[in-house]
Structure formats: structure tokens, C-alpha cells
Amino acid sequence: MSRDRIWILLGKELSGDISSAELSELEALLKDDPEAAASRDLAATIWQTPIQEVNDADNSKERIWNAVSPQLQVRRHRPLVRRLVAAAAAAAVLAAAWTGWQLIRPTAPVLQQLSSAPGGKSRVLLPDGSTVWLNSNTQLRYEKDNFGKQHREITLIGEAFFDIAKSEGIPFIIHAGKVNIRVLGTAFNVKAYAGDSAVSTTLVRGKIAVSFREKTVVLRPEEKLTVPVSSSARGFQQQHLEKDSSGQLADIFWLNNKLAFDNNTFGELAEKMGQWYGVAFHFESANLQQLRFSGIIDTESIDEALKMLQLSRPFNFRIDGKEVYISN
Amino acid sequence: MRDDIPELQNRIYSGDTQAFKELYDCYCAPLLQLALAIVHNREMAEEIVADVFIAVWKKREDLPRVNNLKWYLYAATRNIALNYLRKYAQKQTLHLDEAYSLEYEINPEAQLISNEMMRHINTAISELPPQCRLIFKLVKEDGLKYREVAVLLNISLKTVENQVGIALKKLTRMKAFLSTPLPGDQ
Questions:
Q1: Between chains, do B105 and A127 touch, taking CB under 8 Å as contact?
Q2: If you count Cβ atoms within 10 Å of the first and of the last residue's Cβ in chain B, which end, N or C, has fewer?
């Protein structure tokens, strides 16, 4: 019994969490037990040996940071949602009330908002195991408490690539503007930025149903559906996509940090590059916007990318912070 | 474990995201381990730790009123983890799964102790029973007080004392055996 007591006291001594009475008790016990006294040094050695978990902690650390970091953004234009997210976070620490923190009880439903900053991309893991890659300046929202229970519904503003985990009988529904996309386990891209004139959906594998007003279209792999947003345009535009020589669909180039454009006008390109780099373009004259370019932007800086474009069409540019001025 | 937490706390209070990242880098892994030990599900544990850090950031204006940020982080992780359990598994009690196993690796920074010895010690630590290992780690590695571990895991102070003692006893046995191999000794 006294032998076990030695170990208990040694632990307290090493941790620094020992009283003077306990320390005297330990010294007395060690005096009577030379064997245990010899172990005292070994115990100290063990105490100094750092222990570290492997268990792919680094991956977890990165995934958690991806969920935490968007919350650090100061979003001016969405004060209501911010407050709801703050309430969700507050609810999570409710049980820690004894620390004297003032806590806010959330009113249901609590929205979880994930966003990527202009010029930044992020990968997020949803509670059901689905993975979503957010292109720059994109927001994703879902009801934190109800997601995955009877439905998996999210709202998307911007562009994202979804790899949806199969969940028997629980459909995954994406609300992108007025378009609803219903999924049962698949991978696809949705582009629905606030300023876009159309919502486009590109399917990579699996099967999805895209509905807009009363119409529903089922997409097969490597098909793309474009739904115009304006109320006057009513039609769908469905096209089969060709893979380029790299074996990838141009619509998901952004996933690999590539911005692809094929015979796009400078106006269209400016919109893409604006999202890509988090900048705003200003054209001196309208005819500049009609210049057409094809190419892929990979890891180039905006300066390098514009110089690359200058090689094929003549124009001048000036970069002033987040503003890009294009002139003749 | 760093000793400038109060300074980080002040910087986070003033909205310094870099300080927040430093706090994250310091505590993410140990908090994840605590959450994992409670919920036994990595995704859920990751979400719990994310909730903890998001809460710290969102409520940073209240940080000056927190006496011990480190303890707050552990307590918040424990509380959120238990809430998750209640919500998803209808389990009210803290239960440390026997199947939950960890591997430990050697920290190259510790040069005073030979690699061989470190490997043996870490192997022995990974072979401790889960509850014993978690308690030992919280005291030794994370530097929590005995009383804090007792409150955190909802166990008695006596249990914490005993478990740390048992861990040390087992670990020294292993090491004593290694350093002085005697013929016929078990």
C-alpha cells in the first residue's frame, strides 16, 4: 500500500502539484525504500520525455482551421447572419457559464455560415461527411442543428465544388438563387455568384436533378446546365462538356488553382479574374471589354497574368491596390 | 506549452488574428485529443474544437474577464463534447472507450533523452489503459492541475492521483527492466 503511495506522491512532486506535508511524507517513504528511491530518477526522466500523438493530427488541425478561419473575417454586408453565427458559438459554450461569461441563447434555427474571402479558396467538411471546396468570395449556409437529420439543405452564393457523401434517404439540396439542386451522392460544380447572369451546374459523376420554377432536368456526368437568373429568360441551356487534353473539365479548373477561359471577352474575364484575385476592374472604354482571350491562369500574380494577356491583344493596365484600370 | 498565454489573450481581445492563430496552434492538438477521448468520433471532435475556437473569437470582448484561458479552453471543449454526446448518442456520462487507441511519436526537440529510450517510453505510454493515459497526459503534457483534471473528467481527485501514480509505476517498471536486464528476470 505504501508502495503505491510513493508513486502517487512522485506524480504530484513531478507535476509541481504537491503540498509541503506530502513532500515530507514522500521523503520519509523513500528513505525506507531504497528501490523506490532509485526509481525516482527514472520517473523524472519519463516526466521529461515529451509525448506526442501521431494519428494524423495535422490533417485534423488543417480541417479545423478551415472551419474556424472564415469566422475571423469581418463581413460588413451580412450583420444578421454574423449575429446568428455568434449566437451559435455562444450556445456551444453555454455550459461554461460559471466562468462568468455573459451568454446569449440562440433563437432557432441557428445558421452556420462558411465563407471564403475574395482571392481565397477553402475546403470545408460538412457534418454529414460531404466535402465542399469553396471558390473565392463564396458563402455557404446551413442550419447547424438540423443539417443531416431529415434533410441536408444548404444555400450557396458563389461557386463551389461538392463531393456529397451518400446518406440513405436523406437528400442533399442546394439552393442557388432560384435554382434548386437535388442530390443523392455525387460530385459536381455549382456557380451562382450574386452578380452572375446564370446559375451553372456541371456534373462530374453521379446523378443530380436541377429544378428551376416548375421544371426539372436530370444531369448525367460531364453535362453542364445553365439556368439564366433574370425573370425574362425562361429557358434552360444544357450542353455536353468536352474534356481538354489534361483530362479535366474547364469548369472545375479553379479547384486546382487554375482559372481557365476559352474565347471569353475581356469583360467576362475581368469578372472571373476579379473573383480570382479579389480585385475590381475598370475599363476606359467599352470596346476594350470586347477583346477576346483564351488561356489558363495558374499560379501567376495578377500582374503576370495581365502581362500574359498583353502578349495576345494590345492594352495597357495599371494596378492600384484592389483596383485594376484597363486602358487603350 | 507556452507561458505567454495572458499576453496572447490581450492581443486576441484587441482583434489580433495572428495571436489567435498562435493560440490555435498551441492548443488545437491537445483539445482535439480531449474531445476524441469523449466522443470517439474524429469528425465530431474536429467540429467541437472548431466550436471552441470560434466561440473564443466571437466572444473576445469578454476575454479580460477570463482568469485562466487555458483552463477555459479545456472546460469549454469538455462541455461542448458532452453536449454533442447528449445530442447525438443520448449518453449522459463520460465514458472512455477501451478501443480508443493513440500512437505517440518522438519529439525530436528533446535531445537530453536518447532516441531509443524515448521510443520505449512512448510505446509504454501508448500501452497504458485509455483513462490512465488520458489523465497522465493531461497532467504531465498539458500541465493541468490535479484538481482541474478531476473537474474536467468528472472524477475524484483521488482517482487522478491514483491514475498518475499507476502510470508512473508502470512506466518506471518498463524502463527499469530495459536498463538493467537480468537473466531470468520477468
A1: no
A2: C
Residue A75 CA to residue A198 CA, distance in Å, equals: 25
Quick check: B110 contacting A, CB < 8 Å?
A: yes
CA distance A170 to A168: 6
pLDDT value at position A127? 82
Q: Which residues contact B167 (CB under 8 A, 6 or more apart)?
A: A11, B125, B128, B132, B133, B135, B136
A150-160 tens-digit pLDDT: 778 888 888 88
Give the pLDDT score at A96.
Answer: 39
pLDDT-above-70 percentage for chain A: 72
Collect all residues with Cβ–Cβ distance below 8 Å to B175 and sequence separation of at least 6. Answer: A42, A45, A46, B117, B120, B121, B124
**From residue A36, how far is each of A7, A9, A10, A24 by CA, in Å?**
9, 12, 10, 15
Q: What is the DSSP letter of A193?
A: -
Q: If DSSP codes are grouped into helix, strand and coil, which group holds residue B124?
A: helix
The pLDDT of residue B176 is above 60: no
Spans of chain A below 50 pLDDT: 74-108, 245
For B:14-73, CB contacts with A below 8 A are: 17, 20, 24, 28-29, 32-33, 42-43, 45-47, 49-55, 57-59, 62, 65-67, 72
Measured distance CA(B129)–CA(B96) in Å, rounded: 10
Distance from C-alpha of B37 to C-alpha of B81, rounded to nearest angstrom: 10
Whether B170 shows a pLDDT value over 50: the answer reads yes
**What nine digits make up the cell of A275?**
473573383
Strand A323-327 versus strand A280-283 pairing type: parallel
Could you tell me which of A153, A129, A149 has the C-alpha nearest to residue A140?
A: A153
Tell me whether 0.90 is exceeded by the ipTM.
no
Alpha helices in chain A (DSSP H): 2-15, 20-32, 34-48, 57-68, 79-92, 266-277, 302-310
Predicted TM-score (pTM) of this structure: 0.43
Which pLDDT score is estimated for A34? 77
Q: Which helix (H) or strand (E) holds A199?
A: strand A198-205
Which residues make Cβ contacts (< 8 Å) with residue B121, sequence separation at least 6?
A45, A46, A49, A51, B113, B171, B174, B175
Residues of B in contact with A167 (CB under 8 A): none
Instruction: Look at residue B102 and tell me whether its pLDDT is greater than 80.
Output: no
Secondary structure letter of residue A206 according to DSSP: S
* pLDDT bucket at B160, cuts 50 / 70 / 90: very high
What's the number of CA atoms in the CB half-sphere (13 Å) around residue B172?
Answer: 24
Q: What is chain A's mean pLDDT, rounded?
A: 74
CA-wise closest residue to A85 among A153, A148, A146, A143: A143
> Residue A1 has what pLDDT?
53
